[in-house]
Known about the structure:
Layout: H1 31-45, E1 62-67, H2 73-84, E2 88-93, H3 105-113, E3 119-124, H4 129-136, E4 140-146, H5 152-166, E5 173-177, H6 184-195, E6 199-203, E7 219-221, E8 232-235, H7 253-260, E9 272-274, H8 287-290, H9 297-316
Parallel strand pairs: 1-2, 1-3, 3-4, 5-6, 5-8, 6-7, 8-9
Helix pairs in contact: 1-5, 1-9, 2-9, 3-4, 5-6, 5-9
The structure holds N-carbamoyl-L-aspartate.
N-carbamoyl-L-aspartate (NCD) binds at residues 73-74, 145, 151, 154, 184-185, 237, 239, 276-277.
Amino acid sequence: MAEVTPLIRDELLPPRGPGRRHLISIRDLTKEDVERLLALARTFSASLDREVKKLPALKGRTVVNMFFESSTRTSSSFELAAKRLSADVMSIKASGSAVDKGESLRDTALTIGAYDPDVIVLRHPHIGAPQVIADATTAHVVNAGDGTHQHPTQALLDLYTIDEELGGIAGLHVAIVGDVLHSRVARSDIQALVLMGARVTVVGPPPLIPRGIEAMGCEVSHDIETIRDADVVYVLRMQKERMLEGANYVPSLREYTARWGVTPERLRPGQKVMHPGPMNRGVEIDPVVADAADALIERQVRSGLVVRMAVLYDLLTHGPVEVKVAEIEEVA
Ligand code: NCD
């Protein structure tokens, strides 16, 4: 069988032979992998402006979305991405599934695996859950968020958005502000931005910044004024559902907003503002900032679609393939 360029070089993954690749962590991507995926996403973006948006690229393939945590953006964009590529798509949510009846993740995986899906996209509250799916099935696994660990496609769509908007990533300064401690987006974004040559500063109150995070290649600031230096201010949600009960990360949300909220006064004209959503308007981000022309929040959602199309396509077509949308016959 032909050599396959692995998308993922995660030594934790059992050797499965060529052809079965996963996207579990940004850590496992090289700069070339990221560049290839962003280029593919750019190619797919041409299909968004067409009257008929569907491409036959993954016709006959099956993509299963398993979402065991709340999601609007990520689940809808994976579903639409797979549909736009003509794959058969099945979406399973924890509530209303056998998970409600106490079924283990492995047993759910074995059940779904019996249909021989080509790709399983998983969102799960537990770190490492994508590996359970990878071990129990023969599908390619895409991590759509596992606990506080990783959310690699969010990082890729953020890179894509920055690249499109600012004409490159290397040399930019990105400030990531807020609840870094509970954020899988922050972890994936720091790794992805550093990999692509950006400078990253995480900004927030000490209890919300993980100790030792500098080891990921970023700087740390506990002064909100630092965000004024950045080209891009990336605002994180206060992730209350992930905070330990009884722990006082901040005295109160009102206090948090007063000291760390991203307001027009704390920004410089021309700075781009991003947020992975869902936003808590009036908490971590002022509504005026969220709705301003320099906010890229809706752009991020649009990027999510083409980036996820690229990831699905890349996993299933084994790496670097040049695709020209114009050359792919449209499917009515
Ligand atoms: C993020 C997530 O779920 O990790 N949201 C998303 O995927 N759009 C960020 C968050 O929940 O705050």
